[in-house]
Amino acid sequence: MLKGVRIKRVILLFNVLALLGSCGARKEKLQSNQSLDVYILMGQSNMAGRAALRAEDSLVQNKNVLMFTKNMEWAAAKNPVHFDKPGITGVGPGLSFGLAMQQHAKTKRIGLVPTAVGGTSINAWVPDGYDKATKKYPYNDAEKRIIEAMKAGTVKGIIWHQGEADSQADSARIYLPKLIALIQRLRKLTGNEALPFVAGELGHFNPKYANINQQLAKLPGLVAHTAVVSAAGLTDKGDHTHFDTQSAILQGNRFAEKMIALQKQK
Question: Which domains, ranges and CATH numbers included, belong to the chain?
Fold first, then answer.
């Protein structure tokens, strides 16, 4: 009897370990004839995701939506998509954006390339730009990841959510030229002068964020194939900075709507 109990315990332990192993992001091997529709996720913490993770948020929802891991390997996409600050990354707009784009493309596999770094100013998003807090070079790191990701497919667009760090009036006034320069740099890197670029408004729950939103509103009139996603109705998680879970997911869907609209213009 005791022996039977021990055997059952061993079997149970084996099953638990197997289940835990399956919870990790599995590396995806792409066939030589497969080509991903690649999308770049850029910005600071609201792109990286700081919203609370629910149990269902950590599950793979669509095997045709992949993410480019920290180790630059493709894996089935699930939250958290980003890895900029381990331990605090949560739900952002990236996954819901990818799921919506795959539903639109249907036969295509979507590849999400997370590059956002929480807390970064737009001043760090230039070649050799350095972020002291994370000791990273956000643009340089993003460029390396984009170049590697392009081996698996074609970059179809970029979504950008950043500006909280530049929302003081003086910084906001000189924000737009820096953003335009970044767009031009990324289009040159990807070899597509008309690459769709969608920027997200900052949350309306913080009055000073209007300084950046006023600048973003000018972008579509100055740069072709760009759009801005509204943050109207979105709520924060209680810190007046970061979107809550439902808002982050909704913002991702809004990014997808604008991206699809831009792609139809071509």
Answer: 32-265 (3.40.50.1110)
